[in-house]
Amino acid sequence: MPKFATHADPAASGTLRFPAHPIDGLAGTSFKHQHLPSILADDGRDGGFFEVHAENYMGAGGPPHAALTRIREDYPVSLHGVCMSIGGPQPLDKVHLGRFAGLVERYEPALVSEHLAWSTHNTTYYNDLLPLPYTEATLRRVIEHIDEVQEVIHRPLLLENPSTYLLFKDSTMSETAFIREIVQRTGCGLLLDVNNVFVSATNHGFSALDYLSDFPLEHVGEIHLAGHAEQEDDEGDLLLIDSHDGPVADAVWKLFDIVIGRCGRIPTLIEWDSAIPDWPVLKGEAQAAQAILDRHAVLRQERIHARA
Amino acid sequence: MHALEECHAGAAKEFGYPAGFVPGLLDPDRATPALVAGPNGKTADKRYNVYRNNVTVSLIDALATVFPATMRITGEAFFRAMARFHVRETPPTSPLLFEYGRDFPDFIERYDYAQSMPWLADVARIERAWLDAYHAADAATLLPDVLASIPPERLCDVVFEAHPASRIVCSAYPAVTIFSANRASGPVGRIDTTAAESALVTRPMLEVEVRRLSPGADIFLPHLMAVEPLGKAAATASEHCPQFDLATAIGTMLEAGALTAIRHGG
Predict the structure, then answer these.
(1) Can you tell which superkingdom this protein's organism belongs to (chain A) (predicted)?
(2) Where are the domains of chain A?
């Protein structure tokens, strides 16, 4: 279990609009509107949760809010920001941060997360999670930004580790050391994207297991799993692309199994954002993750009984 | 914070990575930035190209999502080439991608290869208005009996509040017919009309609706939505368009849910 509170405290707010719906130990999926009729027809409410990209719900009204309200009534929801530009040096966009805080208040999500990346420079929005050098100066700036976000949303943020394709010559710290410092100095939690670890490890020639050993797993409040695509770098070696357009790779499932064995039943999300399949396929991926979460829960129980 | 950065040359260097990183993202002629590398002495050209590709392709995809009928008319290859020019010339300034593409219809109007389709920009304007209506605030629409309850002698002074989703797109071409034929999934037959068609875009509940406005209603409704009294808006419409029919225009706007409330004029 994480040592910090990543979940909304229902008792702290007297005016809940939605049921609390605990998220512990659940597997979930990205919420795509085309799946809504199938999800509602499932009628199971057989657990699970849904994650949405915050920006898609920053319009004033209309079908997006109607769909999210409907899903939030029956399921826990995770609010995932993709363009706060926390990893950029310029000040955070206060209007955008206000919109983000408004969604946190409106939908009472079980989890709230953002990326260690940047996407806006001056006034241009590049619509990608761009990488940053890991230095003392960028560390201080990222910490300031996370402090600011957490003050405005009144709760801890989960910060997601990036997938990257290149390195900065100016970097002076490893990504895991950088992330450890952020966690220590902001009190934020972490969203561990296991596919990102695998993609970056392949692209930069390090061991994914070593990365996980250096990663502060005790602060992970959510896990992401996703599919990736294959390309080549200039030297003809494998370059993996974090494409979110297919099933989770076997190697990523193995890493996930190891992570859950080490840190318990962390809420786990299957991300699938393009070439989106029919609901049963996506649900099947979540069920595979749920099976791993449940197996480790049983193993844990057996260990406790054996000790007794 | 910016002023502080400029004071400290060291810090400015530490924070110069976005300025160094972005120039090549939308400009294929620029070299890979000098500040990046691959691991273990590898080069980073194809690595940097992943970011160039993510940025450019995702923004073209965003335009394709906002303007599906426009793309159906031009074909995908034509559309993506046109969108690529626009993305490079006018990248988004908001992180909300559903706000992107407001300048695209004007770009289409200027785009050399689209000159043979002079109505294409107006179809794109209807599509942009459609998405604005989709995301607009929810509001109850004006019920016909509320208007019917107003004594005839006071009708001239009545002022309305526009529904937040309502948009009007004026066109000198049959833009609504072309839009409707190309937003549907069925085959597009021959479009015979050449008459000018202006669109009324509304979202009374959750479904966006697009209607053809009767002659002069495209003058009347914008005045009405700009909080002009009914009598004055109708007079303006009649003056510019002799065929203007007030009853038809009022019927359309009530049916479409273009208004939310009535206020009696001062």
Answers:
(1) Bacteria
(2) 17-307
A17-307 maps to which CATH number? 3.20.20.150
Q: At what angle do helices B230-240 and B246-256 cross, to 10 degrees?
A: 120
Radius of gyration of chain A from Cα atoms? 19
Is B18's CB within 8 Å of A168's CB?
no
Return the bridge partners of A241, or none.
A229
Chain B, residues 97-136, CB within 8 A of chain A, namely 97-98, 133-136
Residue B167 has pLDDT above 80, yes or no: yes
Residue with tokens 């002076």: A172
What is the third-level CATH fold of B135-266? Answer: Outer Surface Protein A; domain 3 (3.90.930)
Question: What whole-number distance in Å separates Cα of residue A131 and Cα of residue A121?
Answer: 12
Residues of A in contact with B98 (CB under 8 A): 56, 59
With CA atoms as reference, the chain B residue closest to A54 would be B96
Beta strands A158-160 and A111-115, pairing class: parallel
Rg (chain B; Cα; Å): 24
Q: Angle at CA B188, nearest 5°, toward B184 and B190? A: 145
Q: Kindly report the nearest CA distance between residue A240 and chain B, in angstroms.
A: 10
Farthest CA pair distance, chain B: 85
Condensed to tens digits (0 to 9), the pLDDT of residues A199-255 reads: 999 999 999 999 999 999 999 999 999 999 999 999 999 999 999 999 999 999 999
Alpha helices in chain A (DSSP H): 36-42, 63-74, 94-107, 136-153, 175-186, 194-204, 208-214, 250-263, 279-307
Give chain A's mean pLDDT: 93
- The pLDDT of residue B5 is 46
Return the domain boundaries, chain B: 1-117, 135-266
With CA atoms as reference, report the closest residue to A36 among B206, B10, B131.
B206
In the predicted model, what is the mean pLDDT of chain B? 94
| Site from A70, A166, A211 to mutate, B interface, most B CB atoms within 10 angstroms | A166
Distance CA A99, CA A94 (A): 9
Per CB-CB distance under 8 Å, the chain B contacts of A231 are 46, 50
Q: What is the 3-state secondary structure (H, E, C) of A152-216?
A: HHCCCCEEECCCCCCEECCCCCCHHHHHHHHHHHHCCEEEEEHHHHHHHHHHHCCCHHHHHHHCC
Q: What are phi and psi of B167, to 5 degrees?
A: -140, 145
